[in-house]
Write a structure and sequence with these properties.
With 198 residues, this protein is an alpha+beta fold. Strands 5-2-3-6-7 form a 5-stranded mixed beta sheet, with helices on both faces. Helix 1 packs across helix 2 and helix 4 runs antiparallel to helix 5. The longest helix has 17 residues.
Length: 198
């Protein structure tokens, strides 16, 4: 999955993180001066800034940058949007798919902008529950649709690599608003995101 490259890292943030990761390696019993680890603190410092770049991006502005007046009133669905995020409790990754639907109320947005909104909120320290509602709220605020639905399915390395150690568990979260609070509309959406293309 392609993401916008950070052109310039904040030097103060980078140097502070480098110092802290250097110390962390020592505290873990490693030698941060050995050949394989000499550049690791810098690499991790830049990686963490990359993985949390969503704090510096505005999802509403992203949607509004491609907002078009249209009279369509049928459900718009973008499903299987890849997402990669970091659990805020253990700072371990979780990853999976987001499915988004909305029913326009005079306005639509570029389809890629919905995927970008997922990226913005995913590139922050997160919990899946909050991530789901943040995506819904951004679409609701910017487009004022008749209804919005968001479902996320993800695997969490904090459950797979540590603690309970359940490698095959998948967490599903959902958020619905407007017309999607009605059983018939919600059922249609859930049926469509589970339908496989022929």
């Amino acid at each position: 999955m392609a993401y916008t490259k950070i052109e310039k890292y904040d030097e103060d943030v980078t140097s502070g993180l480098i110092k802290n990761y250097h110390e962390a390696l020592s505290l873990l019993g490693e030698d941060p001066e050995r050949e394989g680890l000499v550049k690791t603190p810098e690499r991790v410092a830049k990686a963490m800034q990359y993985l949390t770049q969503g704090y510096h991006q505005d999802p509403i502005a992203i949607i509004n940058s491609a907002k078009f007046k249209e009279s369509v009133s049928e459900m718009v669905i973008v499903k299987d949007i890849e997402l990669y995020s970091m659990c805020e409790h253990h700072m371990l990754p979780f990853f999976g798919k987001a499915h988004i639907a909305y029913i326009p109320n005079g306005w639509i947005t570029g389809l890629s902008k919905l995927a970008r909104v997922v990226d913005v909120y995913s590139r922050r320290l997160q919990v899946q529950e909050r991530l789901t509602t943040q995506i819904l709220d951004a679409i609701k605020e910017s487009l004022n649709p008749v209804g919005v639905a968001v479902v996320i399915e993800a695997k969490h390395l904090c459950m797979m690599m540590r603690g309970v150690g359940k490698q095959n568990s998948v967490t599903t979260t959902s958020a619905f608003d407007g017309e999607f609070l009605k059983n018939t509309t919600r059922s249609e959406f859930l049926k469509l995101i589970n339908k496989k293309l022929d």
